[in-house]
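Contributing new records

If you add data, match the layout below exactly. Sequence lines come first and carry their own label; structure lines follow with theirs. Keep one chain per record. Anything else will be rejected by the validation script.
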Amino acid sequence: MPSAGTASSCSSLRSSTVAVVAIVLAFAVVAGWNTARYPSSAGYDVQQHEEYADLLIHHGELPSSATRSEYYTPPGFYALAGVATLIGEHVHAGDPHKLGQVLNWFVLVATAGVLWLLARELFPRRPWVQVTALGFFCFLPVVLRAGAMFHPEPLTLFLSSVALLMAARILGRQDYRWPLVLACGVVLGLGQLVRAFSLWTFAAVVIAFVVARAPWRSLVVVMIAAAVLASPWYIRQAIKYGNPVFDQPQPDKPVYERRPARFYVGLGLPDVLTDPVRPHFVNEAIPTTYSEVWGDYFGVWRGNRERQSFIGLLPTLLAVVGWVTLLVASRRVPARLPVALLPGLGIIGYLYFTVSYPTVDGDVLKASYMLTTAPGWALGFGFACDRIATRGRLWGVAFAAILGSIALLSLPFLLY
């Protein structure tokens, strides 16, 4: 006869599987609703994104700096979205770019699946981590908002998540066969052909390989594979525009003098809670990014932004504390290193970018630029939730009720 412990384990596994299926189905429905309802003409810099895709697919050309365009962005997403738009011209002629949004719907749902596989890989016997990490990701407003647009960030997020999963399996299982390592490098290179913000995923994987003392040949294969794919684009940009990553004007002063102290330490109180929308707390990094993650600072969505600011307080606290705890705990667990390093590297990269290119209206402070770090924050959140919920059955039930309530309260905002 099975022991009580075995029966309890099987019951927990069944419950977590049901929860995962329910979360993914809800996510697919909400994201699908947003894809159908969100105008293809709305979103961040949507005209430039659509013109890029049209120019690439119809004329085989890349945009230039002579026009107001995304000429500094790699062509990976625009090639796929352009094909989707081309299909849309035949099956949805009234709004062909809508199929670019449909593409991002598939990408989002696939990313949720990859995140679940990553959570299972890193925490195979901890269903609370798996379920709550997935729930955090699927109910994160910045994920659903970006996924509803004609925009390259969701594809970057997907490729980053796949690279994290592959790196976790390679390091955790110590399986350094060259096809696996090569595939990981290829995915990292593909990510850089979509958006330069995937560079910190590349850095997280490389640093993890070094810290884990992986065979040097494996590290070299990862780096060369990524470089072979991404370097032609960077070389072209460097030759043509003088900057391989982001060819935009910069102030003629040292980086550390480009932003006032308020940019780094301003909290935007009380507006970050009572009126979290531009032009309040312009060029204050913390409140603007927070409002972008949980609400709609730049006014491209609709819904109760004030309620969202309050709803996001507890999940943010859990995600930050959980990430720090996960980072410390991952020093001796090589498989967890890439995902644990990613949020910190993302913050550094995000700060360097937003400080290097200051703007009057603060429009460089978009949380979507850190979208590739979402798996790291989600697993940090799950790690913290696991520590709380496993204290006892009552703790688990109460905590599940709190998290469920937060998700339900967020739902009206998440649906466009």
